[in-house]
Specification:
The protein is of the alpha+beta class and 275 residues long. Helix content is 20%, strand content 36%. An eleven-stranded antiparallel sheet has the order 6-5-4-3-2-1-11-10-9-8-7. α6 runs antiparallel to α7. The longest helix is centred in the C-terminal third of the chain and has 13 residues. The N terminus and C terminus are likely disordered.
Amino acid sequence: MRGVVAGFGVVCCLGLGAVGCARSDAVTRGAPAGDPVRVLRQAADALVDAGSSQARTSLEMATGGTRVTIRGEGVYDYRKRLGRLKVLLPQDPAGGTVRRPITELLAPGALFMKNRGAGVPADKWVRVDTGTLSDGNLVTGGATDPFAAAEVLRGTRSATFVGRTEVAGTKVRHYRGTADLRQASRDASDANREALGAAAKGFATARVPFDAYLDDEGRIRKLRHRFSFVNGRQDRPVAVASTTLLYDFGVPADVRLPEGEDIYAGRIAEEGSRE
């Protein structure tokens, strides 16, 4: 299991308004109205209109017969493009070591991590330029940035309406489709354009199958992507499923980025290193 987590790149990888009227026409009560592709491409805008929300994330990787699940929970400000998540890593192979949650701050072009371990002082943050990551930080941090996940839908190429259902007691519309990361990067906000462009080149394929669940205001309540992550092995890509749950829209989301003196500038050791 240690090799699986290290290979996955989680934490130790480092080395992480004019559409309102149209949307209201496309997302109305009762039967689905409008083109599903158009509805999904506008879903990220509905989150900006909502302002903020709480979020839960789950990242599942299956490789070599082993499955790893990493969970996160926190808040996100869609207008400032800032988020804070506590990410819980799986236990060690023997199940005896309880890993401390890693605090992650999500910002345009950057990921900040605390409790990074591997030689990083407990009171320091590690900063990663997400534009340099081959997956655009859709996978590396152990949690997909909620707004980046939504902006993947801007690249929706095909989609169908599956039916009405519920997510956490909220009535939603279930859509299933495929997005193209190259198209998503072209249509994304400035905050995610570079990262999604990197992911389009770094994944085994730029095509991303998804299931999206939207409420009657067009806001994403649940979003599940299925990525094919190369992770240095073009001949053996890793299947990764990322699930994002969004709720409590409008909740206060005060996210403060660390000051320069609080960012660790030393060498980052690999997980399991004896250094």
